[in-house]
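Researcher: Predict the fold of Carbohydrate sulfotransferase.
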Amino acid sequence: YHWRHIKETQLSKLNQTEIEAMLGSYTKVLFVRDPFHRLIATFLQSMGSSPSFSSFVEDVLGSGIHNASVAWKPLVSLCLPCLVQYDYVVMFGFLRQELGHLLWRAGLSVDSLLPKFTDTQVLWTYRWLSEQMFSELSAQQKKKLSHFYRWDLSAFPFSSSYLSD
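Model: Structure tokens for Carbohydrate sulfotransferase follow.
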């Protein structure tokens, strides 16, 4: 196929047969993170653009799914887990152990290739931040956010998310 000779290929530029051949020839790994944690991280990175987390959430909800920034757009609409059969789904908070398993499965040395991850160490910070920022939101905002991320919450095991029903 011609896509094998192209440095970067977007699936949308290929026909169905080429897409199936391409996806079938790779190990597909999807990295996911609790949508509420993604919102918090985006808010913290863009401090100053919104006066409060609550107003930032209003901007997110006002953008709608189709006009949403990649930073907070629902993962299901970005990575199509119902169409692409991912071989591995790696959750933020378990990067070291899950990537170690992937490297081991690939026959690679785990210790020499993995950097030091801090995702498991910062989970307690996100728990605290989630509690604080979730308390800033109105009941209506909480309900709308849960609806906005309903497919992510159904597709991935975010059972401890503040947005889970």
